[in-house]
Design brief:
- This is p44 outermembrane protein, silent.
- This protein is mainly α.
- The chain has 2 helices and no strands.
């Protein structure tokens, strides 16, 4: 479930702003 949500959030962030998505990925790591 969480993975699915993460996927959706990543896609949304990517659509909104690529840099934000990268930051989010770094935070997740």
């Amino acid at each position: 479930m969480m993975l699915l949500l993460d996927r959706l959030i990543n896609l949304l962030l990517l659509l909104l702003r690529p840099p934000v998505k990268t930051s989010f990925s770094l935070l997740m790591l």
